[in-house]
Amino acid sequence: MEIPKEQILDMLRQRGDNDKAEQAKDELPDKVDPERDSGILDRLGIDPKELLGGLGGAAGKLGL
Known about the structure:
The protein has five helices and two strands, in the order βααβααα. It is mainly alpha-helical. The chain has one domain. α1 runs antiparallel to α2. The C terminus is likely disordered.
């Protein structure tokens, strides 16, 4: 499942991680695959499960 980069940037900004948001803006592709991009997400302090859980709906219900 791919997640729009903007959603990740918004999440970082909401947490007050503006420096990490700027870093993510430069490093992440437009569509982020939590598995493929796990190294970058890890450096940014983002748990891929947090991203998928934040989507709610089917992803949250399936435990993805």
